[in-house]
Amino acid sequence: MPTATRSDAPAPGQARALFRERVDVPTAGWCPGYTQVNLISVPADWAYDVLLFCQRNPKPCPVLDVTDRGAWTTPLAPGADLRTDVPRYRVWENGQLVDEPLDVMDHWRDDLVTFLIGCSFTFESALAEAGVPLRHVEQGRNVAMYRTNRPCRPAGELHGPMVVSMRQIPAGLVETATQVSSLMPAVHGGPVHVGDPAELGIDDLARPDFGDPVRARPGDVPVFWACGVTPQAAVMASKPPFALTHAPGYMLITDALDEHYRVA
Amino acid sequence: MPTATRSDAPAPGQARALFRERVDVPTAGWCPGYTQVNLISVPADWAYDVLLFCQRNPKPCPVLDVTDRGAWTTPLAPGADLRTDVPRYRVWENGQLVDEPLDVMDHWRDDLVTFLIGCSFTFESALAEAGVPLRHVEQGRNVAMYRTNRPCRPAGELHGPMVVSMRQIPAGLVETATQVSSLMPAVHGGPVHVGDPAELGIDDLARPDFGDPVRARPGDVPVFWACGVTPQAAVMASKPPFALTHAPGYMLITDALDEHYRVA
C-alpha cells in the first residue's frame, strides 16, 4: 500500500517526488486544486500528426503543453522530470502495450516529443465545490473510462475512437455539473453525453476499458466527458512504431492551478 | 465602391461569391453571427512550427481548422475556395510583403498547409447584443491593430511579438465586454490589457500597425484583445521562405456560427 493518502494533501512537487520514489497509485483526488495532465511521447516524425489530431479533436485532446524534441521538462511543473514523475507509465510498440513501468528511464529516446493533455480531474475540484459528489473518489477508485463508437477526426496517420470518462451524478445536479465543466473548455469542457451508455456504444458500465468500475447510488445518472486517454486509443488503432504514455488515471500532477483553466 | 453594404447582410456563401468576383473590402460587420477567420498558408515543412506556435500562444492564435497539405477547402465553409474567397490576400517571401492580390491562384503551391485562426470579430455580435458599441463599425472602418512589446513563446523557427486589436469602449461597459468575450476563449477570449497603450509598447493609437485608426468618444477606454494577425507578425520576424495570408481585416467568412464558440 502507498504511504501517502489523499488526506495528506501533499504539494504537487511532493507528490511527484513520491511517485519518483516509486509510489504507484492513481492520482484522482490528489493535490486538490492543481491541474493533472495526460502524457504522450512520440518520435519527432509523428509529432505533427499528434498535434494536428489534438487540434482536430479538442474536446478529448486539449493540449496544455508540448515539449521541444528530446526535452523532459515542462513549464507547467518546474523541476519535474517527465521520465520519472508520473506514478505509472505505459510503453507501446506498433500499437501494442509492451510494458507498464514506474519510470521510463530505460525507454527514453532523444527524438521524443511529449504532449501534455488536459484531464477531467481538473474540473473535479470545481464540481466538488459546487456540491457535486465524486463517486470514484468516495469509493477510493480510479475513474471509469470507455472507448466509444464515435470516431475522432483523423490527422495524417492517426485515427481512433473517442474515449470518455464517466461520472455517476445525482439527476438533480447534472445541470450544475454541465455548467461548471463547460466553463473549463481547456480541460474537456462540458459533457459529450448524458444518460444511456448504449448511445456511445458502451455495452456495460461495469466493465470499463480503462480505470475501475464505479458504483452508482440510487438516483444517479451516468454523465460522460471526452477523455485525454483518447490519444492512447489512437496509438492502439494507428500503431506508431513507438510511444510512451501515462497509465490511465496515473497522471502527471502539475503546479498549474485548476482555476487557471476556468474562463469565467 | 463595393456594391454590397453591411445592411444587405448577405449569407456567408453570398459574401464569399462577391469576394471571389473581386469585391475588395474589409469584412468587419459583414454577415453578423457568422464566424470570420484569419488565414495563413505555409509550406508543409513549416507547418509543425506554425501549429506549435499557435498551441503555445492560444490567446492570439486559436486554431479553428488546419487543411491537409495542398487542400484549399475547409469544413468551416463548405463550397469555399481558400485561394479566392478572401477579399484581399498578402504574399510573403522571406518575411517581406511582396504582393497584395485579390486572389492567390497564381501564387498557390501544392505543398501549402493552411491554418484558419479565430478572429475577434466573432465576439463582436455578442458585444453588440450586450449593448457594447463598436466604434470601428460605426465609423465604417477596419479595426485598429498594433504590434506590442510582448513576445510570443517561440516554436522552432517561429518567433515574434503579440499583435492586438483595440476597441474604444465606454468605461461603464468594459466589465461587460470582458465578461462577454471571456466566454469565447476559442476566438481570443477576454482582453489582454485595458487602458494605457504604453504598457503594451504602443506609442500612438492614431497610428495602428494594421487596419485603420478609430476615433474614441468621450468616456471611452481603449481595450486590447490578442489578435489573429499575430502569425503575420511572426512571418515578418521569422522570415519563412514563403507564406500566404489574408490582408488584416479582410477575413474569410465561414458558415460556422459565432454562437458555436461560446462556452456558456
UniProtKB/TrEMBL annotation, chains A, B:
Statement: the UniProt record of this protein carries the keyword Lyase: yes
UniProt-recorded Gene Ontology molecular function terms: lyase activity
Keyword flag Heme: no
Key words, A-Z: Lyase
InterPro entries given in the database record: D-Glu_cyclase (IPR009906), Putative_hydro-lyase (IPR038021), UPF0317 (IPR016938)
Broad class of enzyme this protein falls into: lyase
Domain of life: Bacteria
EC number: 4.2.1.-
Pfam families per record: D-Glu_cyclase (PF07286)
Similarity remark: Belongs to the D-glutamate cyclase family.
NCBIfam families: PRK05463.1
Name assigned to this protein: Putative hydro-lyase FGD71_014345
UniProt source species: Streptomyces sporangiiformans
